[in-house]
Design brief:
Layout lengths: L1 H8 L7 E4 L3 E3 H17 L7 E4 L5 H13 L2 E4 L6 H11 L3 E5 L13 E5 L11 E4 L9 E4 L1 H13 L9 E4 L6 H14 L2 E3 L6 H11 L3 E4 L1 H9 L11 E5 L5 H11 L4 E6 L3 E6 L17 E4 L2 E5 L14 E2 L2 E10 L5 E6 L3 E4 L2 E4 H9 L6 E5 L5 E5 L7 H9 L10 E5 L14 H13 L3 E3 L1
């Protein structure tokens, strides 16, 4: 990993820009900052093979700290800064880092360029494997798993991005709305941009106003983000701010077709799709757009198949560090947890989550169909259907007049009786994981609903 990072840091000239927010960092400045961070980390005892938990808010400092640690040869354990102390403690217990890197002060809201960083030694264990990036599964459907990425898997993923048609090119400006602490933001954003000479631009806050401001100020060529970012932009149209943009794609969570359609109708260009998992990295790329549920063809070097209705990907080793989950990885194949099929022209079509097919009163129901119907309501912004013995729908809406009775009537016109949710729980917004994915686990979903109920921001039926 040390050689790979050294190569990336020295591919481009001193004056070539790499990061921008309010100010701009060039490759020359980045090399100096990374070297300074590495010296401070080595001064507290971080060495090749040290395990370091990095919990720094999105910032130039966070990106530079990760690069500095990799340049030393440390194993980076990437932890989202928004996690509570109890959540962070669980991840520390799972990974036993030797050092913690965190900001010296209270984190600010939104993207900040600089933080003072503290590197603090704690009682932990050095790296037991050659993996140099440790992440965690999203936790959207249950307990998080510890995932390791080797240098080979990271370099292969960067090469896949470089080989994909339509990706941002040298000198182009990419507005990165994905979290740089998450898998796509870190690899498809940071590492690919270093490799290709792409200029990364960061918005301050996840609001349409701030996103559009930075797109306009930096005349960006490309935008990547989660579906909810594109939903925000489609709901607050400002075509002039995106007039320089030639392309966009969603990564980190599957884009609903209705959101993609509204965005394309508003701005005149499509949103592509990058599908992958934290365990595997990016698997498919359709930069120029696709008709969902297709997510495009497998990227260069990816071998995929559909077995027993589930999408599987060939991997050399288990991605799980704490213990292998044989239901997900066995015999050199990783089950993504997505139901799907391969089209005649080799594209992967996703048909829902593996746990979205349930049996209620002897009838098979695809919960994604229920969610699709709910999201078709003009006052619904997002929806999750869960349950086995009965279906419960958790619905995000910014509309106070929307009621459970209205949703019952809406669904009754569009779904068979046995597919109807038995309960509707309305909230302003649905809870999300630290990486921005909607939580689909019943217990935390209902806990968030009850909290909203206590503050009066909900409806029920």
């Amino acid at each position: 990993m040390r050689e790979f990072i050294t190569d990336l840091l020295h591919r481009h000239g001193d004056d070539v820009p790499i990061f921008s927010h309010r100010n701009t960092v060039t490759h020359g400045l980045l090399r100096a900052d990374v070297s300074a961070h590495a010296a401070r980390f080595e001064a507290v005892g971080i060495r090749d093979g040290s395990t370091v938990a990095v919990q720094v808010p999105p910032s130039f400092s966070q990106l530079e700290a990760v690069l500095a640690l990799w340049s030393i040869g440390a194993q980076v354990i990437s932890i989202d800064h928004r996690l509570r102390q109890a959540e962070t403690h669980v991840l520390h217990e799972l990974t036993r880092p030797e050092f913690l890197v965190h900001p010296s002060g209270v984190p600010a809201q939104g993207f900040q360029e600089r933080y003072g960083l503290v590197a603090e030694p704690v009682e932990g264990l050095p790296a037991a494997t050659p993996h140099r990036l440790v992440q965690f599964s999203s936790g959207s459907t249950g307990r998080q798993k510890v995932i390791g990425r080797s240098t080979e898997s990271l370099t292969d993923e960067v090469a896949r991005f470089e080989a994909s048609d339509g990706m941002p090119r040298r000198g182009e400006r990419l507005l990165l709305l994905n979290s740089p602490a998450a898998s796509f933001g870190l690899i498809g954003g940071l590492l690919h941009s270093l490799a290709a000479g792409v200029h990364l631009v960061f918005a301050g806050k996840p609001t349409a106003q701030d996103i559009l401001h930075h797109a306009r100020a930096h005349e960006v060529d490309f935008v990547t983000g989660l579906p909810f970012h594109f939903d925000l932009l489609a709901s607050s149209p400002d075509c002039d701010s995106l007039r320089t943009v030639r392309g966009a794609f969603a990564g980190g969570e599957l884009m609903p077709q209705n959101v993609a359609d509204r965005f394309a109708a508003t701005y005149g260009f499509p949103v592509g799709e990058c599908f992958g998992t934290t365990e595997t990295g990016a698997l498919t790329m359709a930069v120029n757009g696709t008709v969902r549920p297709s997510v495009g063809k497998p990227m260069q070097g990816i071998t995929a198949r559909v077995r027993d209705g589930l999408v599987e990907v060939a991997l050399k080793e288990t991605p799980y560090l704490s213990e292998n989950d044989s239901t997900r990885f066995s015999g050199g194949w990783f089950r993504t947890g997505d139901r799907g099929e391969l089209s005649d022209d080799g594209e992967i079509r996703l048909l829902g989550r593996a746990d979205s097919l349930v049996v209620v009163r002897g009838k098979k129901i695809d919960l994604t169909e229920v969610e699709h119907v709910l999201c078709g309501h003009p006052q619904v912004t997002e929806a999750v259907a869960v349950g086995k013995a009965e279906i419960r729908a958790y619905v995000g809406t910014g509309s106070n007049p929307l009621t459970a009775q209205a949703l019952t009537e809406w669904c009754t016109e569009r779904l068979a009786e046995f597919k109807l949710p038995a309960h509707f729980h309305l909230m302003d917004t649905l809870p999300r994981t630290s990486s921005g994915k909607i939580i689909r686990n019943m217990e935390p979903l209902h806990a968030s609903y009850l909290q909203a109920h206590l503050t009066g921001n909900n409806g029920e039926g």
